[in-house]
Amino acid sequence: MIKKSAYIGVFILFITLVVSCEKDFQDIATSVVSNSKFETKDTIIDIEITNQQITSVRADGLTIGGTLGQYLLGVYNNPNYEKIEASMVSQLALDINNIKDAAERIYGADTTVVTTIDTVFLKLPYQATLNTGTTSEYTLDSVIGDRTKPFTLNLYRTDTYMSRLDPVNPAKASNFSSDKTYQILPGELNAQVNYPFIPEATDTIMEVKRRLSNGTIYQTDTIRLSNNNPFGRVTLDETKMKALFVDQFDTPDFESQAALEQYFKGLYIQATGSEGSLIAFKLNTSDNNIRPSIEFRYTKTVLKGGTTVLDTIQKTNTFLLSNFSTSVYKMEEKVFPDNGNIVLQGTAGNMAQVKILPANDLITLRNKNWLINDASMTFYVNQNIVGADTIATPYKLFLYKDGSPKSQIKDVISEGPEAFGGNLVINDDKPDYYTFKITDYISDLLSGESNYNPTLGLKVSNSSDIPVSVADTLVTNYNWNPKAVTILNHSNSNGVRKARLKISYSIKK
Predict the structure, then answer these.
(1) Domain span holding position 78
(2) Which of 226, 231, 252, 374 is a Cys-bridge partner for 125, taking CB atoms 3.0 to 4.6 Å apart?
(3) 3-state secondary structure of 67
(4) CA–CA dist 384, 345 (Å, integer)
(5) Is residue 17 part of a domain?
(6) Among 331, 357, 383, where does a domain finish?
(7) What pTM did the predictor assign?
(8) Is 96 exposed, middle or buried (0-12, 13-18, 19+ CB in 10 A)?
(9) What value does the CA radius of gyration of the chain take, rounded to a whole number of Å?
(10) Would you state the pLDDT for residue 338?
(11) Which helix (H) or strand (E) holds 377?
(12) Alpha carbon separation from 255 to 96, 245, 248, 495 (Å, rounded)
């Protein structure tokens, strides 16, 4: 009993000390702000921001799971920014279970089989939201620009082999940039050359007339996607696609995925023009029915004696745009004037370089022995831009250390992406400003714990920017976010809306 009582007494004493310490911690934290021994102040520190053009970004997805989060197709032309023509290049995934057919050998030597292409088309399922209270009325997501005007679309076969491994060093992954040049084989694959493409939320159904070898329609099929999801379609040249695909299904070129990649190296979906819209597509959804693909619908008519129809065999083949896909961004080269504005544009558009606390200022601030309570950097949107497209304004910006290599600011990892910030704040229905919390980064610099203070990079945020673990400290060179915004720089002519670094600190009285 005495031994147990001793244990209990020690435990009570321990708890008392912990509570006392917790109170001390609370008192200390409070005293920094309100204790009479400390005084809390804040100050605005000058920063310097300049425009920086982006020449290209990585476009292959090989180091982030194999595919990009979005693949852009179309044209976005806003006079305030660089025009972008976004195209896609993709290998085709072989559906080997569906291309083989032994019908020719079933009916004997006195029969012939005639193959008729009913339709072959590029299927492009949209990202869309079902309207409330309906079963088939959608609103298209991930589209910016003028949806009432078409951009020009053409499909080609490429002769550039898309290797996943670096030919020079096979131990490394290949690196396909957004400005890479692909060798295109002559001749468009689409039935209508320079096809005018407009995204339509009402495109939820496609009818296909099935025909016998003599042209007689024997059946009409209705194509719908999962949940009646809308999809774009581009009819392809039946003669060319039959010769390239259907007529080769029994050859070694379609015996394996590797063989197909050597035979048909890639599909180039090219968007051009001076107007229209830019559409984001997903290539890695779990539902194959709503993934971009080349769709074949054809009929095999089995004839006896050349005239008597013994049988009709309906065939459907799907070649997904997957396995390996890249993006191509053709950007208009535009030099932005030094007029108090900073242009931020995603993809391979424009970023900004931000310089804070030059060496002399850093030494001066270190000598003040401030206790940093909070540090934030705010960038204000120029709300006076004529013709600004608020739909195309990015919801988030990203700030990082633009050194070699590019790396994360400490607060992204220590406090988390949400606390780090960069989200767009909207006031009075207008885009207003973006704020980043960089307290740990500034605290380390002013305390002398860190001397690394490179130029910072500010850009349109991409989902690949967010670290996946505490060890993920490098910033990758990916961007498939096409949005753009104009912010105000550090010039005093911008008044209270100039870009600024604000530091809140405590000092002993």
Answers:
(1) 71-331
(2) 231
(3) coil
(4) 18
(5) no
(6) 331
(7) 0.88
(8) middle
(9) 30
(10) 80
(11) strand 371-380
(12) 7, 12, 10, 68
